[in-house]
Amino acid sequence: MINNRLILAAALTAAAASSVQAASRDYISVVGSSTVYPFATVVAETFGKTTAFKTPKIESTGSGGGLKLFCAGVGVEHPDITNASRRIKSSEVERCASNGVNDIVEVKIGYDGIVIANAKSAPQFNLTRRDLFLALAKKVPNVNGGGELIDNPYKTWQDVNASLPATAIEVLGPPPTSGTRDAFVELAMEGGCKTFDFIKAMKKQDKKTYKGICHSIREDGAFIEAGENDNLIVQKLESNPAALGIFGFSFLDQNADKVQGSIVDNVAPTFEAIADGSYPVSRPLYFYVKKAHVGKIPGIQEFLAEFTSDKAWGEEGYLVDKGMIPMPNQERSQFAADVKGLNILRLAK
Amino acid sequence: MNKPAVEQMRTIDRVNATLKQRYNRECRFRRFGLGAVLLGLLFVGLMFLNIIGNGYSAFQQTRILLEIDYRAEVIDPTGARDPATLSSADYAALVKSSLRALFPAVQGRGEKRELYGMLSSGAFLELRRRVMADPGLIGTREQLWLPVDDDIDMLVKGYIDRRLPESERRLDNRVVAWVEQLESTGAIEKQFNLTFLTGGDSREPELAGIGGAVMGSLYTLIVTLLLSFPIGVAAAVYLEEFAPRNRWTDLVEVNINNLAAVPSIVFGLLGLAVFINFFGLPRSAPLVGGMVLTLMTLPTIIIASRAALKSVPPSIREAALGVGASRMQTVFHHVLPLAMPGMLTGTIIGMAQALGETAPLLMIGMVAFIVDIPGGALDPSTVLPVQIFLWADSPERAFMEKTSAAIMVLLGFLILMNVIAVILRKRFERRW
Fold first, then answer.
1. Which neighbouring-strand residues pair with B69?
2. How many other C-beta atoms lie within 10 A of the C-beta of residue B140?
3. Domain residues for B255?
């Protein structure tokens, strides 16, 4: 009994000591997008190895979850940096402000391409965004015209576009919680959706319905939610040559012997095509820094310098080796200058 | 009793008529049972084969033998042997010049970049560690095995097919030719991968190890054990030996049984709300992880401990009370030691469950990239199953074997815990 009491007492003291410890933190805490995670972690590791500072802790919480944690307040118990595979929303900036997080530094780090790939053993697809929309949307315009929307009737790719093979539509993609899914829906589906004039006209009048049409993916089995794990999608594609899969460019880059990226709008998903912006399904990656923490938590400024150095995000930097697509020189030097001066984010209202 | 002979005959006839059928039925049932066991074994066997087949190669790491020249003008130009200078010296340059010496024909920026890329980007750290440990090395030469990049490692281990056309391979013909040249001279070989067992996480597969995750798991389990065992046993002893039987204790009992069935993620949410947001404990710390897992394992331990207490024969209690022991003495001197083996089994099963848990830790920030090996229950850390989860999601192909190898280590720990449970139980049983 005495022993038990001692152990309990020890645990309670440990708990008390920890709240003291929370009053100061000697490592950088980063949260946010799982898409930026592989890049942020490389920078963090290099930073930890080459400086006297501790290696930053990086949590993979998703863009939305990361911004929620980030905006929870100022102080050592809140993260210093959040990664995002999309830009911060004005609603999130407001939430930040209501919790006292006023000065946020925005850093764009580069681009990530989203590829639609299939197994090497099958012929390469040549798609347009319109094809993707017609093949995957929940509701599509009636072929007879008239601006009427019907439940997606297409069974094979040939039904969608006569030049495509007559295989059944089967696409493995990420679930709605994933940033990759958001980006795919926004860039590919909406891009194809907009090619119908009457839907495009709807955008001005009724944005909600417009989004509902363009952003809804069919639920009749043609689109299969394959989970967040892109490696799994690659494996499934390999064993099922009839299927297409949606995932990030770095997985295509690593598995070029197993899968091939489909051509979208006449552009193949290559490093160069994503970098110069001609490949249509690519998105920018960001991270956001809490300016109030700079100087309080050791190493933030040095970490930013490492991230924005040419040896990291430059055209031959180590982030490129990990599959990130760098920004053009001019954009890069502009963001590097913003970071150096810790210029605060201003969203255009 | 005295039934007519005709009827007796009829009974034995009926028995005989169905005898074969009954034997068949039993035989079928036995076969079904055996089949079920074999099927289970088959799946376990397949799982083990698959994991071991994928993972065994991660315990080896390809290394290249290089002659390193610790040039004083690069490491310590002033000769002051100042640790700060030694630590920030350009060791990568030493590695690069050794590589150039090995392949003198390599010219041009692109080609050189490719050559340097053959070695792990962390290879220079080994030089730094050696020089920091022994500054006497400066100015000398040394043969050193240095780790290669993960792509080369995959090539040497045969995961990259050399016969594929160049465009479909991650390595071009030039690099493959270099590797083959090294293979012919024996300057490249697979060696035991100690880094995998002792190192922290890394984004470079050849530098990544489970050391940090194992330490994180250890601290988490220590916290869990220190909290859940005393609380669980105390709760079980009170409920079983002291508590009055009434509606309140019934309610408590029902709730403990219900808690055992609560999905573990719920405990994570609770931990986030109570321990982190309310009490302000640090995120990602094994302390919080251990507290959350305590909540999760408590029902298991309480239920197992109560079962163990119930199985102690009442005659022991009565005999102790009969010779004048107090109820507390009865419980602590006689009942508890007898029930201990069962309690320990329950505790170890609970611990094994906690060791394999990921979902609740997701909520409290233990799913994170942490390079530094944690030194205590308050340092940010991750645990083994989380490490497996993170690696399984990494694009680099070399992480696939690391994932399987980490699963092997986790399974090894689970088997070890079960063995310890059996041994402890046996020893306690012998004493009483």
1. B141
2. 12
3. 211-431
pLDDT at residue B429, as a whole number? 65
Q: Which of A38-42, A143-147, B99-103, B247-251 has the least mean pLDDT?
A: A143-147
Helices (H), B103-193: 109-116, 123-133, 150-156, 173-185
Contacts of A159 (CB under 8 A, 6+ apart): A153
Check whether A21 has a pLDDT greater than 50. no
Both structure tokens of B322: 């009969």
Say if A347 falls within a structural domain. no
Q: Count of A–B CB contacts within 8 Å?
A: 117
Instruction: Look at A54 and B372 and tell me if their CB atoms are within 8 Å.
Output: yes
Interface of A with B in 155-194 (CB under 8 A): none
Distance CA B294, CA B115 (A): 51
**Nearest residue of A to residue B279, measured between CA atoms:** A19
What chain B residue is nearest to A18 in terms of C-alpha separation?
B281
Q: What is the pLDDT of residues A45-56, one digit of tens each?
A: 989 888 888 899
For tokens 């040095």, name the residue. Answer: A302
Chain A neighbours among B 296-355 (CB < 8 Å)?
Answer: 332
Q: Does A253 touch chain B (CB under 8 A)?
A: yes
The phi-psi region of residue A110 (left if phi > 0; otherwise alpha if psi is between -120 and 50; otherwise beta) is left
- 10-residue mean pLDDT profile of chain B (432 residues): values are 58 86 94 96 94 91 90 82 80 88 83 86 86 86 90 89 79 87 90 91 91 94 95 94 90 90 90 89 91 93 92 91 93 91 88 91 88 89 92 87 94 89 74 48
- B389, B358 contact by CB (below 8 A): yes
Three-class secondary structure of residue A246 per DSSP: strand
Predicted confidence band of residue A349 (pLDDT cuts 50, 70, 90): very low
Count up the domains in chain B and report the number. Answer: 2
| C-alpha to C-alpha distance for A223 and A191, rounded to whole angstroms | 18
- CA B77 vs. chain centroid, Å, equals 46
Q: Is residue A5 part of a domain?
A: no
User: In this predicted structure, what is the pLDDT of residue A244?
Assistant: 92
The answer to whether residue B5 is domain-embedded is no
Give the closest of A8, A250, A256 to B170, CB-based.
A256
User: Is A3 within a domain?
Assistant: no
Give the residue numbers spanning the domain of A329. Answer: 12-111+285-340
Cβ-contact B421, B345 below 8 angstroms? yes
ipTM comes to 0.75
* Residue found by looking up tokens 């255009």 in the block: A348
Domain count, chain A: 2
Q: Which two tokens stand for residue B260?
A: 């055992």
Give the per-residue pLDDT at B397. Answer: 84
Looking up residue A316, the CATH number of its domain turns out to be: 3.40.190.10
Of A29, A41, A253, the CB nearest to B203: A41
β-pairing, A81-84 with A29-32? parallel
Enumerate the residues of chain B whose CB falls inside 8 A of the CB of residue A10.
Answer: 226
CB contact under 8 A, B230 and A4: yes
Residue A57 lies in a domain: yes
Residue with structure tokens 């005295």? B2
Q: Cα-flanking dihedrals φ and ψ of residue A309, to 5°?
A: -85, 155
CB contact under 8 A, B223 and A11: yes
To test the contact with chain A by mutation, choose from B222, B298, B383, B393 the residue with the greatest count of A C-beta atoms within 10 A, namely B393
For residues B156 and B190, is the Cβ–Cβ distance under 8 A?
A: yes
Q: Is B106 on the interface with A (CB under 8 A)?
A: no
Q: Does A19 sit within 8 Å of B395, measured CB to CB? A: no
Return the pLDDT at A62.
Answer: 81
Phi, psi of A282 (to 5 degrees): -135, 155
